[in-house]
Amino acid sequence: MTIEGLRMLFVDDEEELVSALTERLELRGIITVGATRGAEALEYIDGQDFDIVVLDVKMPGLGGLEVIERIKAAHPGLPVILLSGHGSEDDAERGLELGAFDYLMKPVKIDALLATCRKAVAAARLSQ
Amino acid sequence: VRSSREPDRALAKSPAEPIRPPLSGGGYARLRRQVVLASAGVALAPLVFLTVLNAMRYGTALRAEAIQPIAALTANAERTLEVFLTERRAALSFVVRDRPFDSLCDSEVLGRVVRTLNLSLEVDAFVDLGIIDDSGAQLCYWGPYDLAGRDYSEQPWFSEVSRRGLHVSEVFLGFRNVPHFVIATRHQLPNGGFYVLRATIDAELFAEQLLTVPAESGDDLFLISRIGVLQTPSRRFGPIFENTTWQPDVSASGTTMAEIRDPGGERLIVGTAVVENSPFVVVLARPYREVMQSWITLRRELAAVLIGSAILILGVILWGANQFVRRLSEVNRRRAFLMHQVEYSNKLASLGRLAAGVAHEVNNPLAIIGEKAGLMHDLVEMEADFPKREKLLGLCASILRSVDRCSTITHRLLGFARHMDVATESVDLRSLIDEVLGFLHKEAHHRDLEITVDRDTEIPSIESDRGQLQQVFLNIINNAFAAVEDGGHIDIAFGVPSVGGVTCSVTDNGVGISEDAMSRIFEPFYTTKTGVGTGLGLSVTYGIVKKLGGEIHVESTQGEGTRFTVILPRERSQAT
What is the ipTM of this complex? Predict the structure, then answer.
């Protein structure tokens, strides 16, 4: 499937990372909204439609695991990919238990991210 | 591929081996010496004390028992001689009482008297007989010598017999030059005067009386005067009249015992007894070695028992001390080993936590760098006429490669931090190696590396952690790849150790490892790959293998190659 036109919410507390990655994704035809806080991400999700959410695990305030829990509660079909710099297996397992599609380690190559996104969206659409 | 028994390969010291036991070799030697001395003192002192005490008691008892027969024989001899002399004195008294002085003082009568006495006493001991008046003149005489008319008034014996009434002389040669002694008795005359009856006794016949005493063959039975001059010949002290230079104890009555040495230096036990009313002392000498033979034998046996017991005790003590010190040394070594293991585990755990923290902190900025560089790359790539486009694209690619490299490091750091948890499953090590080689197939192909895997050795499946083992062998084989030149050779072999489990050795013909590097090869952050390695690969590998209950060894010869050998238990329960 093509990923052009895909609507993605990218959430990470590193603003520089959000801005750069958002722009790169936009260049690849992905409509990307960036957020630097968990609460902000939840507001976006409630207000807009997204095909996929890429979510950092460790964030101040609402952490990635709490955010995914709430997303899955409100939008169970919305695929979520976890992104972390820590690499904790516990976090990965917990995230997958909560419904994350996959767990990726920072720094991630954009092609690898897009490939995972493609799979996640395809799987989500298939399940619908 | 070289044999695993090549002699020139040094076995690397793994970091978990004991560094130094609490006591050094000298300390153990000193401890062993102290244990031996203390134990030997406690064990041997009572033994020696009791043995010496027993020896003294036995010695005293045996000596008393052994000298008793000598004392008895000596007393026996003294009685024999005393009876001999008493008989002669009594016989002379009888002669005086039997005949009046006038009829007696005739040489022929005296001759008959002598013959009668010798006959009645069954020994021809009387040699002659004479009568001396109170002025000292010999009035009449019978005997083999011409002694009639002799004047004895100046002789000491005459004075003594005049005063005491009896005189028994020491043995002397006299005018006749034959050993003899004299018995003289004084007799009163009716006119108030006196006369002396003087008889000469053959000293040899007197000495023959000693032969009737049942002495033993080694005994020396003889007579001496009260000042130690021999009165009869002695086997040990010489002929008659020889001075023994030994002063017998004549003050004591009965038999006295003494220890002396003969002129030859031999130790003797002697019994002495003074013959009543005579100048004679009976001496019975018996060699000490004969007297104390039973004591000497017993003493020898006691010494043998003492020495044997001491040797046995010392042997047991030495054995015990060696066992004690050896076990103490083992316990100390094991304790040092465990302490080192704990220390090493703590170090690994601390490093793990540090690594995780560093990785997390580094990954985020690394991701930003990567994305910014990626964005630059994207933007430049989209503009075909961007000034210095190719240069910029190259720079961006360079940054992205460095980010990748850093990413590899941080991911390994996180792997290092994670390797503590183990999931057990059945693992076929050969297929696991095949999987690992699958990851590296492309590089091996590009570099024309020859990789051989042992397909012949039968190896059992083991219960272990597949993911962790993959990491172990990926690290080891990656190292082998790094060590060999293009076209190099890597050999992977399997074995089954006698204690069970599986061994897998990875041998390369690469550059080898120096002695210095060998001693530090499993330390975290130690690397010889300047600018390329993280120094964590083998440390992580070591930690995983130990966690899985296995062992890892490395042998290497510089310029020839390196062999890593991993020994894995068949089940994790075998883990130590």
Answer: 0.91
